[in-house]
Write a structure and sequence with these properties.
heterodimer; A: 295 residues; alpha/beta; Rossmann fold; Alpha-Beta Plaits; nine-stranded mixed sheet; 11 strands; elongated; B: 278 residues; 2 domains; two-stranded antiparallel ribbon; 10 helices; 32% helix
Chain lengths: 295, 278
């Protein structure tokens, strides 16, 4: 896990708890506004930022997550020790191996008296370093049904950090995954600030409470942005009140505006797409976030 | 029959489909496997009657027996143990409970203690037998909570599983051994891109599937064109509507307020039943 905080390079992660609240659209818009930053897409499960930033890949690196068992049936004497020892039900009693269940612990290899099991690298995906019209970008692709997305998040962050140091950037903007588990924690550990994007729905409010709990648990400063606030102004006030009670700053409210989706269809961000009220409000949100980061 | 609802991209409407489908059918089991951010009960409002803790086993070092040889930390694939001169540090949140440290310890110095990682809750509402799981805030691994939840699946019942977003381990744990998977998407570039990832997962698991397009009309036609080209059934389209968005925002399943949808969901279920052949 990446815990390398501090230094001259600031790190901002945009998360949400609930999916689909607008993390990536807002990250893409920030890319237009940040003057000297590296973009990092840490939603490695379902990465979408590249669909707007259209990166030109400069460097591709293979990613190997946890290792995986490989059983040599020729050497196997069917003693069933591996089956008995595997805590993940990855080997059944006929010594049939289930690749999806294997967590790469290596216990089966250790207990095998015949040396019939080896732990091999699995091709879990790729990490990329790219150039976009807004500057450098670090991103990745996790192969279908692979584990260790948290580990790949760390690779993406480390690559972003290397680029930032090499190119003397002052900020890394990280597009985070939804949820509160492993990849989220990898995406926020040691960052300077998290921006939580929520929306005025009961689901998003419930999820906001949990993700704020996570930020708090890891002592990471958090601010909140409310997207699509016009959908339900009563709930928007509830979010503002809740944040006020907790002492969490709300750095902006964005109206529901179809131009966000229209921009996406045109592979543009909301700032490039129009000079609407939405663009002004995103700009305002960005300046508040920037102030929090650099003051 | 087990139907799981998945998506790749978050916020496309998995919970909307799961809860509206469940309420249209009645007499069904709903299992919310999005243990990181479970939302189904916001719409179902089941009164929680039972709770149970989900625990995992974490090593505890017997310092009387330990000789600090370092074999456990050398073996651990997850860096959950670190041996320093005269101490062994355990990082419980990194531990996968594989048991390897105990097996390799020459001093027999490893014991196991239970660690609470989350809980499962159960309630019944409108004929729906409801379960959800909650990963503790600050915990990393959703999979043990999902595994515990899936043990609640009734053999004789129709089951709807609300899966988490994404494509990695928690999703696979939630949807494997489903009879059918409904992939919910929105008609946007993000929706299409993540739908393709989700399709790769269900194909990998050999689960038959179809697509529901939510917020139809909001973006472009490319999801539809893709499904037609790939001969993937489009099971339903839910229009982009302020009324539906507003009902969602206050936690009301739209089948309760808008006419015609109850029948559409019941019909959808029947169609899937025939498709699966149960």
């Amino acid at each position: 896990m990446d815990t390398r905080g501090g230094g001259n390079v600031k790190q901002l992660t945009i998360i949400s708890g609930k999916g689909g609240t607008g993390k990536t659209s807002i990250t893409a818009a920030f890319a237009s506004l940040a003057e000297n930053s590296v973009l990092a897409d840490c939603d490695v499960d379902a990465a979408d930022l590249h669909l707007i930033l259209n990166p030109a890949i400069k460097k591709t690196m293979g990613f190997h997550g946890l290792k995986i068992a490989s059983i040599d049936k020729e050497k196997c004497i069917d003693c069933k020790k591996c089956y008995e020892s595997c805590k993940f039900d990855a080997i059944d009693k006929d010594i049939t191996f289930n690749k999806d269940a294997c967590e790469g612990c290596g216990v089966c290899k250790y207990v095998c008296s015949e040396g019939a099991i080896s732990m091999v690298d699995r091709d879990s995906g790729f990490a990329y370093v790219s150039e976009t019209r807004f500057g450098p970008m670090s991103h990745a692709r996790l192969n279908t049904a692979e584990e260790a997305s948290g580990k790949l998040v760390t690779v993406v962050r480390n690559n972003a950090k290397d680029i930032a140091e090499e190119k003397e950037k002052d900020l890394i903007i990280i597009d985070g995954p939804p949820g509160i588990g492993c990849p989220v924690i990898s995406a926020i550990t040691g960052v300077d600030l998290v921006l939580i994007i929520t929306e005025p729905t009961l689901s998003a409010i419930h999820d906001l409470e949990r993700i704020l709990g996570v930020a708090n648990h890891f002592n990471i400063p958090a601010v909140v942005g409310i997207n699509k606030y016009t959908i339900n102004k009563y709930n928007t006030r509830k979010i503002e009140q809740y944040c006020k009670e907790r002492g969490t700053d709300v750095v902006g409210k964005l109206p529901y505006d179809v131009s966000m989706t229209k921009a996406m269809v045109k592979e543009k961000n909301a700032i490039e797409f129009s000079d609407s009220d939405l663009a002004d409000r995103i700009t305002d949100m960005w300046s508040k976030v920037k102030r929090r980061l650099f003051e | 029959m087990i139907i799981s609802i998945a998506s790749g991209k978050g916020g496309t409407g998995k919970t909307t489909i799961a809860t509206n489908l469940a309420l249209s059918l009645g007499k069904v089991q709903v299992i919310d496997c999005d243990v990181e951010e479970p939302n189904a009960n916001i719409f179902l409002n089941a009164e929680i009657k039972e709770r149970e803790d989900v625990t995992v086993e974490i090593p505890e070092i017997d310092k009387e027996k330990c000789n600090y040889c370092g074999k456990c930390s050398e073996f651990c694939a997850y860096n959950a143990l670190a041996v320093v001169p005269s101490d062994v540090l355990v990082f419980p949140e990194l531990c996968h409970s594989c048991g390897g440290c105990e097996i390799v310890c020459p001093q027999n110095a490893i014991n196991w203690k239970k660690k609470n990682v989350g809980k499962i809750e159960h309630g019944v509402t409108n004929g729906v037998d409801f379960f959800h799981g909650l990963l503790n805030v600050g915990e990393i691994q959703a999979v043990p909570v999902i595994k515990a939840l899936k043990k609640k699946i009734g053999k004789e019942e129709n089951v709807i599983i609300d899966a988490p977003p994404g494509t990695s381990c928690p999703v696979i744990e939630s949807i494997n051994d489903s009879d059918y998977c409904i992939l919910v998407t929105e008609p946007t570039p993000f929706g299409l891109h993540d739908l393709k990832l989700a399709i790769a997962v269900v194909r990998h698991l050999y689960i038959p599937f179809g697509v529901i397009i939510n917020r139809d009309g909001v973006g472009d036609k490319k999801v539809e064109m893709y499904c037609q080209k790939e001969k993937i059934p489009i099971l339903m389209k839910i229009p982009h509507s302020e009324e539906i968005a507003n009902l969602y925002s206050i936690g009301i399943p739209f089948v309760k307020k808008l006419t015609g949808w109850h029948e559409r969901f019941t019909e959808l279920f029947r169609w899937i039943q025939e498709e699966v052949g149960t």
